[in-house]
Write a structure and sequence with these properties.
Shape: globular
Helix content: over 70%
Largest sheet: none
Strand content: under 5%
Structural class: mainly alpha
Radius of gyration: 20 Å
Number of strands: 0
Number of helices: 14
Low-confidence stretches: 308-335
Distance between the termini: 17 Å
Length: 335
Amino acid sequence: MLESFGCFQIFWNTGIYCICMAALCFSISSSLVRPISEAIPVFELVLVRSALSMILSLITSKAGSESISLFGEWKHMHLLSLRGLSGALAMNCFYASIQKLLLAEAMALLFLNPAIVAVLAYIFLGEKITIYGIGGCLSSLVGMVFVVQPPFLGTEWSRERKLGVMFGLFSALLAAIAYISIRKIGKREKSLTIAVWFHSTALFTSFIGLGFQIFGAQLVAPNLIDWICMLSIAPCSFLAQILISRGFQLEKAAVGAAVNYLQVFFGALFGWIFFKEPLTLLSIFGVVLIFGGVLAIAKKSDDTSSEETDDYEKQSLLDPEKSAMEMTTLTESVD
């Protein structure tokens, strides 16, 4: 791992640096989808990405010193299946939204998921929503309106834009369901097991999508540039997940969420430089409102996590060996 190299010590032990690099890697991964999304079907993109991610996960499991049951325990199958299916569908919808919207718009819509998570956690997990959480949800909702710019704001919607917004909103909803299922699973399963369910389910659903030609999807023979882009998406995402997992271990949730929102900034920058995508003042204002919503919701998360940290530190004093094992589990998160 990176911490074994002296030149990476400062970088690896600074949460903000890790999250900044993770945001950059995620943005590069999303940007690589953009130039090939019109030529290559979304299901084929997901198929290649999931296959490579599955291989990387298997390599990670073999490299670890601890034996891991890749598909977990039977009693958790319903939650693992829900995480896998919702995550796989979220990725398909996100890639479809990139195909039809500006890169920054697609990424901003995906970042609505913290607000949706807060609402779903209140309904299904009984987690309290503070005044910060309510304000964050409302800010994100208003920001979403400015990003998608519905007709009552004077914007004409083409069929492609309607589909793009629909896919973008579904990607946020499905990603939120995936996060809720992970929250419900908790520490009862290894993070690598949860990731394997995601990759394997995405692999299976993309096979189904191509096999039955859902939405007219047909397998396409990629050219050299297409292959370079497709083969680069999975390693970028894989590295980003390692970095963001490390970053959120070292930083508070509010700080991490704020820095992670650099994904939208990088997405807008890459879209402007490489794809000549313009941004309106309304959409920029919407991005800022969603950013404020993410910060407010993360503030609520910080208040909760500080209480959990106190409990964790007390437990560490009582059982240092167990707490060390839990920290090892946290660093295994790959997706």
